[in-house]
Amino acid sequence: MATYKEIKGTQIEVVSSDPSNPVEGQVWYNSTDQAVKGQAVLSAGTWSTGGNMNTARRALGGAGAQTSALAFGGVNPGPTLYNLTESYDGTNWTEVADLNTTRRDVSGAGASNTSALAFGGTTPSATGATESWNGSSWTEVNDLNTARGSFGGAGIITSALAAGGRTGTITNVTESWNGTNWTEVNDLNTSRDQLGAAGASNTAVLAFGGDSGGSGSATANTESWNGSNWTEVNNLNTARYGIDGIGIYTAALGVGGAGALPAAEDWNGTNWTSVAALSTGTRNCGTGGTTTAGIKFAGESPPGETTATEEWNGPGTPVTRTFTDS
What we know:
single chain, 2% helix, 1 helix, mainly beta, four-stranded antiparallel sheet, 2 domains, Neuraminidase
């Protein structure tokens, strides 16, 4: 049998701490842990538990990344509407400056907890209020043209998209944000609210799921936005509303939702595939990140709201394994 040195051309390295940037297939002996370890790549995604939020709520806005997320607004039984904002550093949630407009059913866009956009929602009437976050405070900027809540929102602070939602009735109206103003663009093919959305700009967004009838009529419909038009593509495997999105329009994750609370599905640009379920089934939660490093927080977990945070490490994510003799 060939030895490790004969295969790799070197002996197993002895180190006191794990390498900072190991490559796939690298093996080493950690003398501090007294264990042989190696670098692998996840063949399937997994959810792990993150730090709990300070305030349980649903229908909140979310933005950012797995280690740098922002949560804002929402509602809890009462019903109590919130303007609370919390910032996540990858371990803990910290309360920071409040939104100027208290609301639920709000959407968010942004790449980190220092740069985000909050737009739309209900106060309890529909609002078009838009606010920009700079890491320490919210600033009111130009409103949506169509006041609404429970819509799909995606993008970053300078390039976002709002699709569908409820103005009092369900709508298919779509608006594009250029960093200064909202502009009405071509409508969704299917009117709906409580839909999920994923995308990194106002020119490339995926919209999926939702309530197409206004009374719990769950849909699996999925549409792709190219900056000019919506195109119907392959449906979710499970129709649901209250679903939330992670990632971009060619690599997205749809999480939770009524009728499939713990279920998650992965979009590869063509098809949806069921992946590992959430530990805490929810709907109308907040999300951020990507399909290899995502985050889901709060939401409604019947019979009430939750503070639970879960972190997603998707297929292809590097992971350090410890070898055992069992």
